[in-house]
Design goal:
Blueprint: H1 11-34, E1 41-42, E2 48-50, E3 59-62, E4 69-72, E5 85-87, E6 96-98, H2 102-105, E7 129-131, E8 150-152, E9 158-168, E10 173-180, E11 186-190, E12 195-196, E13 201-202, H3 225-241, H4 244-247
Parallel strand pairs: 8-13
Antiparallel strand pairs: 1-2, 3-4, 5-6, 7-9, 8-9, 9-10, 10-11, 12-13
């Protein structure tokens, strides 16, 4: 054979251009897939913030333990809540001030995500979180047992008594403490925000007056993911909003 198959075509240049095309396609694909959950986004005024390279086509996932299917992206991802807050100035990007009770309204550190209103499941399809009274084979072995101890709020007031511990059976950890508030019913306290002492269980983040408004659970035997987010957000919001002196630095008036 005397003829050259590729002639003057540069194979190295073909490989380089092919890589560039492949890499550009990979970047576009990954950017579109990155916008599958939590998109489309919106500006503060409600207008669309757009999406890089457009939104991906919906993809359907089969949920474990017979819980059906879910598709992303979908219209259920749109944020439909309205928040009791207003901007501190008309300038774009200005901070917002709460106009109601931010701990209840889910503002700032009290914000929560609209997670699935169903309990977290273990590998066998059973709720992983629940009170120790319903957890066969689990018992308290070491450390100070908080059950029966008084609950002391951030202002030093006793608000109730610990009636049980809610445990994660998979991780074998205490996730919540159950407090009996008497006439105000039962509430859960996230374990990281409770301190067990010889005097009782101290909860610094909120005061006695706030315990009645702690989000409740639909069941006394399990807690959903949405309820967990609301409960944790309420206590976390108290770190800032429980008292006026926590919100920001206060300047005393100059005395003449």
């Amino acid at each position: 054979m005397t003829a050259t198959f590729f002639g003057t075509f540069d194979l190295a240049q073909l490989a380089l251009y092919s890589f560039w095309i492949f890499f550009a396609g990979l970047v576009i694909y990954l950017q579109r897939e990155n916008q599958r959950e939590g998109y489309p986004t919106e500006n503060e005024d409600g207008s669309s913030a757009g999406a890089n390279f457009g939104m991906p086509e919906p993809k359907t996932y089969i949920l474990p333990h017979g819980r059906g299917t879910v598709s992303f992206p979908n219209s259920d991802q749109r944020e439909t809540r309205t928040f009791a807050m207003e901007p501190t100035s008309p300038s774009a990007g200005s901070p917002y001030e709460p106009t109601g009770n931010p701990m209840v309204d889910g503002i700032g550190p009290a914000a929560y995500a609209l997670r699935e209103d169903a309990p977290e499941l273990d590998a066998h399809g059973h709720p992983s979180l629940g009170p120790m009274r319903n957890a066969e084979g689990f018992s308290h072995l070491a450390g100070r047992d908080p059950r029966g101890m008084p609950v002391i709020a951030g202002d030093g007031e006793v608000v109730g008594t610990i009636s049980d511990m809610w445990i994660d059976k998979g991780d074998m950890q205490v996730r919540y403490l159950e407090v009996d508030l008497g006439t105000n019913g039962v509430r859960l306290i996230p374990m990281p925000l409770a301190k067990i002492t010889w005097k009782g269980v101290r909860v610094h983040s909120i005061y006695a007056e706030h315990f009645a408004a702690v989000p409740t659970t639909k069941s006394n035997a399990q807690v959903t993911k949405l309820e967990e987010d609301k409960i944790s957000a309420y206590y976390g919001g108290g770190k800032l909003y429980a008292a006026r002196d926590r919100v920001e630095s206060q300047l005393d008036p100059v005395l003449n």
